[in-house]
């Protein structure tokens, strides 16, 4: 079982206004919907990542919320997927409310949701479509351009993967399918 998520010693985040992380609950749904609308606008429904999440549902037990002094300020979701017969996750959307940016909430959410998901031992990578400048310092690496096939257009340079397996980025290839697809087909 995953231990409760506390990011730092009790008093420090409160004093410094630093973000902390907790698991999302249904009570966060309205906040997350509004946050994603603010962060991505109406065009979010046309994004290729959205199409992936339409086909394969998010794992709500991996939805995290960032808070500053008890106020929700960020969110991340994970979608279990498989690519080329390997199970893993697609990270996103990741968003921080504009009033709370540049405090480390986004990076904390990305790192923690990845750690928690991979510690379950059921998936071995975390894929995303995002900016190299943001994610590569956190351990994501570019995949082979065009190797992972999405259900819509993506900039292949933005397809990044995180894995403890250093060969993953070179070998992950194929269409995005359901988590566990290799075991049932
Ligand atoms: C991207 C986003 C989640 C970052 O949230 P955040 O809580 O401010 O992130 P952090 O505080 O952990 O990191 C902020 C740092 O990353 C930098 N950064 C933010 N977005 C970046 C990007 N797209 N590329 C490179 N660097 C970026 C900031 O300039 C800042 O740099 P600094 O620490 O040197 O000042 C937030 O800006 C957001 O919600 N954007 C709109 C939605 C979005 O683009 N989501 C990502 C989709 S892949």
Can you walk me through this structure?
Strands 1, 2, 3, 4, 5, 6, 7, 8 and 9 form a 9-stranded mixed beta sheet that branches. This protein is of the alpha+beta class. It is built from 7 helices and 9 strands. It has one domain: Aminopeptidase (3-Layer(aba) Sandwich). The longest helix is centred in the middle third of the chain and has 15 residues, at 105-119. The protein starts with 10 loop residues before the first helix and ends with a helix. Coenzyme A is lined by residues 39-40, 74, 92, 94-96, 101-107, 130-131, 133-134.
What's the helix and strand layout?
Blueprint lengths: L10 H6 L2 E5 L5 H12 L7 H8 L8 E5 L2 E13 L2 E11 L8 H15 L6 E4 L2 H4 L5 E2 L5 E2 L9 E4 L5 H4 L2 E5 L2 H4 L1
Parallel strand pairs: 4-5, 7-9
Antiparallel strand pairs: 1-2, 2-3, 3-4, 3-9, 5-8, 6-8
The chain binds coenzyme A.
The site of coenzyme A (COA) has 18 residues, from α2, β4, α4 and α5.
How big is the Rg? 16 Å
CATH homolog superfamily: Gcn5-related N-acetyltransferase (GNAT)
Count of the domains: 1
Hetero groups in this structure are: coenzyme A
Largest sheet, in brief, is: 9 strands, mixed
Number of helices: 7
pLDDT below 50 for ≥5 consecutive residues: which ranges?
1-11
Q: What sequence of helices (H) and strands (E) makes up the elements?
A: HEHHEEEHEHEEEHEH
What's the mean pLDDT score?
Answer: 91
Number of strands: 9
CATH architecture assignment: 3-Layer(aba) Sandwich
Share of helix among residues?
25-40%
Estimate what percentage of residues fall within beta strands: 25-35%
- CATH topology, anyone? Aminopeptidase
Distance between the termini: 30 Å
């Amino acid at each position: 079982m995953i231990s409760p998520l506390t990011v730092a010693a009790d008093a420090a985040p409160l004093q410094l206004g630093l973000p902390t992380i907790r698991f999302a609950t249904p009570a966060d749904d309205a906040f997350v919907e509004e946050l994603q609308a603010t962060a991505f606008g109406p065009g979010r429904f046309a994004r290729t990542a959205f199409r992936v999440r339409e086909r394969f549902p998010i794992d709500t037990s991996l939805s995290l919320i960032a808070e500053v002094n008890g106020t929700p300020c960020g969110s991340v979701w994970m979608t279990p997927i498989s690519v080329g017969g390997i199970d893993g996750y697609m990270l996103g959307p990741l968003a921080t409310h504009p009033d709370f940016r540049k405090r480390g909430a986004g990076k904390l959410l990305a790192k923690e949701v990845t750690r928690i998901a991979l510690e379950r031992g059921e998936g071995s990578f975390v894929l995303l479509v995002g900016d190299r400048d943001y994610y590569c310092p956190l351990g994501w690496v570019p995949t082979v351009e065009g190797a992972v096939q999405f259900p819509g257009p993506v900039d292949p340079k933005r397809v990044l993967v995180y894995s403890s397996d250093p060969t993953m980025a070179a070998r992950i290839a194929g269409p995005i399918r359901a988590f566990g697809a290799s075991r049932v087909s």
